[in-house]
Design brief:
Blueprint: H1 3-11, E1 24-28, H2 41-52, E2 57-60, H3 66-72, E3 78-82, E4 84-86, E5 96-98, E6 107-108, H4 109-113, E7 122-126, H5 144-151, E8 155-159, H6 165-181, H7 187-204, H8 209-212, E9 215-219
Parallel strand pairs: 1-2, 1-3, 3-7, 7-8
Antiparallel strand pairs: 4-5, 5-6, 8-9
Helix pairs in contact: 2-6, 6-7
């Protein structure tokens, strides 16, 4: 359960009050090794972020490895992951983000939660089911999103179920655009941006809640 430690960490420091991130790492895995479905929209996501936030460090394809991210995340305050998520219902601590080297060095819930990222502010997990845990542990926050809270992120956007590649791009763009062009970004602004994006997609697809209701903001 991430609540106690993450809340204590967040309340010992003031949130950033600037326009957008000081440093953003954005990674995309469009063609994951193995038999997993390709995700061409992930490249559009990180391209969009690079345009909205000049200076974004973009990692794609074979660059997105466990060691590369372990080195990059401490240098950034915002992080965006556009990739597959993998859930282990029997052992949720083994659930992981599917990076390029996921078969050799998976970035698991346990790995993420052990990180200590004092500058971390916002992580956006554009991946499937990052808030899903095991059926026998449905009342516990042992999932990928919770792991990022434990690592130190004040705000995390995760997903409750599988998301469509094309709509994931649309959602991310709607969330990030006001954060790039609006008032200085704090906890409330991130929550409001996700709420507005969800409302807009609901208006476009009112009969398909599975398409627009998956993304959830935690933290702040």
């Amino acid at each position: 359960m991430p609540a106690v430690r993450s809340l204590r960490h967040h309340r010992t420091r003031e949130p950033a009050a600037r326009r957008g991130p000081a440093r953003l790492v954005a990674c995309a895995v469009p063609r994951p090794p193995g038999s997993l479905q390709e995700l061409p929209g992930t490249l559009r996501e990180v391209g969009m972020l690079a345009e909205l936030f000049p200076g974004t460090r973009v990692l794609t394809g074979a660059e997105v490895t466990h060691d590369a991210l372990a080195a990059a995340l401490p240098t950034a305050d915002w992080a965006h992951f556009a990739c597959h998520g993998r859930n282990d219902g029997q052992a949720p601590s083994r659930s992981a983000l599917v990076l390029h080297d996921h078969d050799r060095a998976p970035m698991t819930v346990l790995d993420i939660s052990r990180m200590r990222l004092p500058a971390a502010e916002f992580a956006y997990l554009s991946a499937c089911s990052t808030m899903r845990t095991g059926a026998g542990l449905s009342d516990e926050a042992i999932h990928i999103t919770g792991a990022f809270q434990l690592a130190g992120y004040r705000n995390v956007v995760g997903t409750l179920w599988n998301i469509r590649d094309d709509l994931a791009v649309d959602m991310a763009e709607r969330v990030y655009t006001p954060l790039a062009h609006g008032a200085p970004v704090g906890d409330e602004e991130i929550a409001r941006a996700l709420h507005a994006a969800t409302t807009e997609l609901r208006a476009r697809h009112p009969g398909e809640p599975a398409w627009w209701a998956a993304h959830v903001h935690v933290g702040g």
